[in-house]
Design brief:
two-stranded antiparallel ribbon
Amino acid sequence: MTLAFRPLSRDNLADVAGLDGAFTVEAELIPSARHGVVTYDIEPVPAYLKRYADNEEGELADFIDAPDKMFLLAYADGELAGHISVAIHWNRYAFIDHLAVDARSRRHGVGRALLAQAIDWARARQLPGVMLETQNNNVAACRLYERLGFTLGGFDRFLYRGEMPETREIALFWYLPLG
């Protein structure tokens, strides 16, 4: 699979809505902390489909031609394969807010390639590192981050309960120092 990367523009803004980011959850990462070190176990769960909310076009338009953030689309054979957004966070880390790979393009290196683009973007701006947040039910993504050198720096059991009081989702914070 050959990928072509394009920054978000008014011409390709509508492409983002066509991405199928849903995935089947079959396991959850269960984090714990002791003496300031975060570790985890992975436990199987009954399978279910997880779908994230779609990106708002107005929110995405803020990325077009913005010097301090980037929304990059990856195309394979002319079809949208994935996208990533990154911006400079308050702590001077590059913060990846959105990373999605289309269901048909998974396990072909699209996520890894998009993360490499975001890491290069952070290095070009001499930022101290890259950070992102995901949920404990996205085990495949967590394994990818770990393979790329990210460290699980913390977790928040209550972050999503304001909107979803019954949720078991745990926010996981991953960091990649660039120094």
